[in-house]
Amino acid sequence: MTDTKQNTRPDAAASNPNAVSVRIEPKAMVKAKFQRRHDFRIGKQPAYVDGDRTELNRHLMELRPLPDIQRENEALRKRAGRTRKMKSNAAVVTAGIVTFGHTAQEVFNRLPEELQDRAFRELAQEIAVLLKTSLEALVVHLDETAIHAHFTLRAYNDDGEPISNATRLGDMSALQDLAAEVMQRYAPEIERGNKKQARLKAGANYSDTLHRTVKQLHEDLPLEKAMLEAEIEAMSQEINEQKASVAKTQRHLAKLEAKSVLTEKEIKRKETYSKRLEKKQVAMAENMERLKAGQIALATTMAQEAEAIEVEKQAVKTERQEVQEQMAAARAAKETYDRGVDAIEAVLTEAENETLVYNPDTGETTMQDPTPLKGTPPKLQTQIVNLAKRLAFVESNLFARIFRLDEQISRIRAFLTRNDLPPEVKNEAQEIIIDAAEEEPGLG
After folding, report:
1. Which of 25, 165, 199, 228 is the most exposed place for a label (fewest CB within 10 A)?
2. Domain 19-193 top-level CATH class
């Protein structure tokens, strides 16, 4: 079917309704698992998904097991000479989405399914080539408000560098150029989105280049809110599983600690349990931080939704009052948050502000304000105090290592100023200095 409607040129200061857009975001293992469930409709789905249309979704490329991708990331880093172990919250995949402006969407919808799939596949594959990584999954969604495609890339490129470096403005601009180029092979009417700088020069308000319209918020926020809620639920479930695992390890360790005499085998087992417990506690603490970040993001999304409603219907006092009451209830709930978590946050804050001090002479650890710890249960208080001691001790040793490393690097640099050194020796020494500086632990 041919569309005879004139394709009008959009205002240069506004977002482009004729445009295709690409967004990418790194995903750690927990979020990658959730993204996979969302993309391939595994398990319970948010309310905005039309279950009657889910069978229309098209799986163009299934995702291989995430642990396999993670192992490949580690191998690429190792091949690139990176010896430091990957962080537990390092990205496993980079999730991407291809969307259209409302006019471009109408144009794309008129294409036959096989051409739509070919366009999505070509774009995803060429993005992978541009970023020097591999395409891991591709699915077309037709059970939401508008056609779009989700794609998944390996989180590290062939050089062992994280794809997250591609979120720089120049690289993201190149992705938008590529998206328009590929889509125009199939639908010449589809255009590139207006660049932020071009919109500003054309007279757009800076805030308009950052914030969505009320209409967009009404379309997007329910989806974002549902995704955040599902993500928080999945993360909470994982934390509960981690808590159960930690408790089990603690029970095993307690049995051994209760014995007055241990065999050599039991001593080794105790060491294994202790190391295992520490790793589990660190992983759980990291997940709790991510959970908190998700809760904050959800609160932000809820606040945006409330603001959009207020702007659009500011004359409706009853609705505005309801929003205010909801926000007040959220603030009240936040104020009654678990005192134990507050105490942990206080310890971490003092560690960050360097007011958590370890005295190597006495072995004592002091806080500037220990008040938050006093309101916690005795058992939890003891655990938090032990945590504070470990943090302060580790930080004290970290500073000492950094200062020693800086001193050694300075000595090497001074040594390199000698004129009797062969160039190849100087070059090799300079590479050692660069590697040492990259591997140097940070203070921030």
Report:
1. 165
2. alpha beta
pTM score, whole prediction: 0.49
CB 287 within 8 A of CB 30: yes
How far is 354 from 396, CA to CA, in rounded Å? 10
How far is residue 37 from each of residues 43, 128, 301, measured CA to CA in Å? 7, 22, 22
In this structure, are strands 148-154 and 135-141 parallel, antiparallel, or unpaired?
antiparallel
- Residue 314's SS3 state is coil
* Alpha-helical runs (H) found in 189-335: 196-201, 206-210, 214-257, 264-312, 317-335
Tens-digit pLDDT profile for residues 398-413 = 766 777 777 777 777 7
Q: Per residue in 32-47, pLDDT tens?
A: 888 898 899 988 887 7
Burial of 91 (0-12, 13-18, 19+ CB in 10 A): buried
CB neighbourhood size of 432 (10 A): 12
Pairwise CA distance, residues 165 & 31, whole Å = 19
What is the Cα–Cα distance from 433 to 436, expressed in whole angstroms? 5
**What order do you get walking across the sheet with 191-192 strand by strand?**
58-61, 135-141, 148-154, 91-100, 19-28, 191-192
Distance CA 50, CA 238 (A): 27
